[in-house]
Amino acid sequence: MSGIDAKGLTKRFGGFTAADDVSFSVDPGEVFGFLGPNGSGKSTIIRMLCGIIGPSSGTASVAGYDVVTQPEQVKTSIGYMSQRFSLYPELTAGENFDFFAGVYGLPPHQIAAAKIELFGRLGLSGFGRTRAMDLAGGFRQRLALACAIAHRPRVLFLDEPTAGVDPSARRSFWETIRSLARQGMACLVTTHYMDEAEYADRLAFIYNGKLVATGSPSELKTSYGRKLYQLSGLPPHQAMDSLSGLSPECQLSPFGNSLHLSCSPEIELTPLVRSRLPGKDYSLVPIEPGLEDVFASLIKG
C-alpha cells in the first residue's frame, strides 16, 4: 500500500513560484509534518497532492495514483480536513457526517455503522443532534476529522487542523492522529505551531516555496550545529538593539519574554554580551535548541 511520493513538484502562478522543486515521501503508518509560516507554499503543495490543481512540473503519486493522470482515483482514496473545518454550521453533527460520508459514496447502512464507530471513538456520541455551530472548537475539530475519515482513506491530509483550537484540544487531536497512523494511514499535517510538530514522525520545513530541511524532530535538532543561549531579564527588543551587530557569526531571535542567541561553536559569546550590556541585570545560559531555533537558523542561513 502506497502513501505519498512527490518528486520535483513545482507550481507557478504567472511569475510567482508558490512551490519550487519539492520532493518528499510519506509512508503508510507515518505522521509527516509540514512546517512553515503562512504563505510558505504548504497549502499549494497539498492542493496539488489532492489532485485539485496540477503542478507546473514534477510528479507525484498518492495512494498509488498519479495526481495528474488519475486525480479522481486520488480524491476517492484520501481524506482532507482544512483549518476552517468545512462544516455546515446549521446542520447537526450527525447530518454533517451523513452528508460527507454520502459524498464519499458510502451506502446508508455503512454510513450508520461508521457514524456509531467514529462518534464513539472521537467522543461525539452525545452530540449527534447538536448543530455544528453550537459545538465548542475542539468538538467541531473532532467532527471535521470524523467526516474526513468516514470512508477509511489510505492517506489523510490535515491543513492547519489545530488553528484556533485551545492547547488541550490540540494535544488530544495529535494523539488521535497518531492512533490513525498506527492503523496504517499515511498522514500529512501542515502547521505553523512548532511545539506540536514534535508529535510528527518526520518533518519538512517549507520556506518561500522551497523545502529547506527534512528529518525527524530529534534529527533536525541534532543537526543544529551551533551554540545556543537564552538571555532573560531584559525586554527582548531592548536587548536586540544593544546586541545588534554583535558578531557576523551570531543570530538573535526574540523568544517570548527572552532572547535566543546562537553562534558558531568557536565563538565565546559570554564576554561579547557582557561588553554590550555593562551594568545590566540579566541571565545568559546555554540551552538545547528547539524546532523553532532550527527553523530560524535555516531561513537566516
Instruction: Tally the structural domains.
Output: 2
Q: How many strands in all?
A: 14
Give me the number of helical elements.
10
Unreliable sequence segments: none
Gross geometry: globular
CATH class of the largest domain: Alpha Beta
Instruction: Please state the CA-atom Rg, rounded to the nearest Å.
Output: 22 Å
**What is the CATH T-level topology of the largest domain?**
Rossmann fold
Q: Order of strands side by side in the largest beta sheet? A: 6-7-8-3-9-10
Strand content: 25-35%
Helix content: 25-40%
**Cα separation of the termini:** 38 Å
| Average pLDDT, all residues | 93
Along the chain, the helix and strand elements come as: EEEHEEHEHHHEHEEEHEHEEHEH
**What would you give as the CATH superfamily of the largest domain?**
P-loop containing nucleotide triphosphate hydrolases
Major sheet details: 6 strands, mixed
Kindly name the structural category. Answer: alpha/beta
The assigned CATH architecture of the largest domain is 3-Layer(aba) Sandwich
